[in-house]
Design brief:
alpha/beta, 434 Repressor (Amino-terminal Domain), Rossmann fold, 3 domains, 14 helices, 12 strands, elongated
């Protein structure tokens, strides 16, 4: 009789055993945070404040939490997985970066988990939770500079993970990053247009994102050093879109850039941020009966496939995507091996590919 009575009691005891999830619900945090606070688990490389650690330990003691040692042993193992945070916008640049990341990570013995950040409906907490639950060993952030929140993503990633590498420099202290030198790219296209004997100008969609202001800065610096007496504005931007509008650059924008700025200032060499936008400028010039490059030369940025498809073929700045991704992967790999990378700040020099849309003067 006593034996029979003991069985329900034993079963009930197991059913009511306090878990990490129970403590997490009471504390209002994730189970990953509770695991770190109680066990110092390296899974997810999460950082927890001393005050929260104290609170969680007090709850665990109050609820008589007993750790599951088998699960604890599993949690200490490395997952051999990296998290990749990417902008949700489907672009050729995003696709090429992700394909390279998959290959490079695989060569290092890692899998990658890609999460997409939708800037129209930002929800970083859920994205971080995915990485935590999967126990990623590190994170590569492809995009972090969004209008009005350019420090949000870097701060959250650095707060929650020890091993984070950014593509392009974030505005936080002591980041690990790899990226092309956009300021030098701006100087490069200006110098090239001047070497071709042209009057240069740059067309940019807007100055809300990471690369565009740096390109414009390099272009303006080179212009001021070369032609300080010129009184025209060397960089043209379309109107800044409202927060709820999607920034666009269509054929009407390209025509407006020519009619309101480039042609009145008699500019004969145009650098355009984005190869698709540069292709639209080519069309707009040809619509006005202007020859490229005889009347106006054009240089794009990105060295995308469209450069070989348009006529004339488009000169463009190569943003060194392969080298950037390779460097970022190598940096994260060294961090995950608890080694110090050769460098934690990698600015890569861009390369200019000259095609038929911009030809040097014949000597």
């Amino acid at each position: 009789m006593n034996s029979a009575n003991n069985k329900p009691s034993s079963s009930k005891s197991k059913k009511n055993r306090v878990t990490l999830a129970d403590i997490a619900r009471t504390a209002g945090v994730s189970t990953a945070v509770v695991s770190v606070a109680l066990h110092g688990s390296a899974k997810g490389n999460i950082r927890v404040s001393p005050a929260m650690v104290k609170k969680i330990k007090a709850l665990a003691k109050k609820e008589r939490y007993i750790p599951n040692q088998a699960a604890r042993q599993l949690s200490l193992q490395r997952s051999k997985t990296w998290g990749i945070l990417c902008d949700s916008m489907p672009t050729e640049l995003n696709a090429s970066r992700l394909a390279l990341l998959h290959k490079e990570a695989r060569d290092k013995g890692y899998r990658v988990i890609v999460e997409y950040y939708d800037r129209t409906r930002p929800d970083m907490d859920s994205l971080l939770e995915v990485f935590h639950n999967l126990g990623v060993d590190g994170v590569i952030c492809l995009h972090h500079h969004f209008p009005n929140q350019h420090t949000l993503i870097p701060r959250l990633l650095k707060k929650n993970f020890d091993h984070v590498v950014f593509i392009d420099r974030p505005e936080i202290p002591k980041p690990c990053f790899c990226g092309v030198d956009y300021i030098e790219a701006g100087r490069m296209v200006y110098r090239t247009l001047r070497q071709c004997g042209l009057q240069p100008g740059m067309i940019i969609k807007n100055l809300l994102w990471y690369a565009a202001p740096l390109l414009a800065k390099g272009f303006i610096e080179a212009h001021k050093a070369d032609r300080p007496e010129d009184d025209y504005v060397p960089v043209w931007t379309a109107e800044k879109p409202d927060e709820n509008d999607k920034p666009i650059f269509d054929i009407a924008t390209a025509r407006r850039a020519l009619d309101s700025w480039a042609l009145p200032n008699k500019l004969t060499g145009l650098a355009v941020f984005g190869d698709e936008q540069a292709a639209l400028v080519l069309n707009a010039l040809q619509d006005r009966g202007l020859r490229v490059p005889q009347d106006v030369a054009v240089i794009g940025v990105g060295n995308a496939r469209i450069c070989e498809l348009v006529r004339p073929t488009l000169s463009s700045v190569d943003l060194q995507v392969e080298l950037t991704i390779h460097s970022a992967v190598e940096m994260l790999y060294q961090l995950c091996q608890n080694k110090t990378p050769v460098t934690t700040k990698c600015l890569i020099e861009p390369v200019l590919h000259l095609r038929h849309s911009c030809q040097p003067e014949q000597t």
